[in-house]
């Protein structure tokens, strides 16, 4: 029953899976993003207060959600790698970090572009914004710690530990709008009870979120292949994989 | 000869304290840095004392964080360089105990010293005497938490050549909640309202890090020492 789990510790097996998943994930992501973009940017009605500017959420909200999801994935992969000494976990964490940092940056930039017309300022020292910024710093810290060591194995484990420690920030970001009186709007979609948003606006958003997730999966698989090839460059299976 | 855990703890703390007092410049430099940084703000902003009072909590806390960071670099480094840390870890005592002892000693010579000096800086920044107790207690909780966070960071960056910069990059993001709530508590105390909420938060974060950070710092040392 656990053999599939053990197999995930084997680099050639994971390399094969990643290679097989990429086209599927990419095409599914393209479908979801096409529907989400057309329905979100053209079909969904404008907001009664914000007009067309609210359409920023179709990029902003999925990016922000992904920034947290990817950090959690990275921390979980790091914990697996530390506890069971599974090298593939380090590869997954290393492949995820730059993607997560990019989504965090995207969430911050789109949010501040939306904030200028809506809040009258690009940036406010608000709990949600500040904790998201800290998340970006954590990503940068994890990435630079990994590359700071001359011995890559040691860098991997140090970065993994930092990723696990930094996970305390994830609930802070998520609940910042609940715990503090924040300028940022409260939970609209991810909460208990019905989302406070009509279906014509909600479905494109969910599609965009799904598309972003699939896109992350696809990019992760591609980057993971690169990471595994680089890490296992002495191994025999790499020579065969490159030849074929 | 076997030494009990508590005895070993006391021995390590005493050794650290003796070492710091033998090299008083190491003890004093962060404190002087703290004084100088807080002096720079009024000079750069050329504010009246009343305006200065508004920004003083932020100035005080930023300077405290930065000066604690200065001394963190030496927390494990010199002992790791000359092999003392390796010998300690081979001594049969748990590495966690050693980390706890070293971090406590580090807090005594950096954080506690900073708390003692803080009334001078606070007076210069125009903070009323009535707010001193809250300010000092919040600084004590904050610097203790920072010492624990710093132990993780210092453990992770021991063997690195440019570890100092990386240490700040790792520790400062994690320390921002301290800055926010510490400054909030001080601000409340200055304006005369109740600072209990922020103090409770600082205390809970302190307990949280005191419980979990020793384990994380030990794991960090195991990674970088082996």
Description of the structure:
The complex is a heterodimer of chains A (244) and B (226). Chain A has one domain. The longest helix of chain A is centred in the first third of the chain and has 33 residues. Chain A has 244 residues and is mainly alpha-helical. Chain B is mostly helical. Chain B has one domain. The longest helix of chain B has 30 residues. The two termini of chain B are 26 Å apart. The mean pLDDT of chain B is 87. At the A-B interface, helix 5 and helix 6 of A face helix 8 and helix 9 of B.
Total of DSSP H or I helical runs spanning 4+ residues of chain B: 9
Give me the number of helical elements of chain A. Answer: 9
Helix content of chain A: over 70%
What ranges of chain B have pLDDT less than 50 throughout 5 or more consecutive residues? none
Count of individual domains of chain A: 1
Which residue ranges of chain A are poorly predicted, with pLDDT under 50 across at least 5 consecutive positions?
Answer: none
What is the first-to-last residue Cα distance of chain B?
26 Å
Number of domains of chain B: 1
Structure class of chain B? mainly alpha
Major sheet details of chain A: none
Chain-averaged pLDDT of chain A: 86
CA radius of gyration of chain B:
18 Å
* Coarse morphology of chain B: elongated
| Chain oligomer state | heterodimer
Keywords for this structure?
heterodimer, A: 244 residues, mainly alpha, 9 helices, 77% helix, B: 226 residues, 0% strand
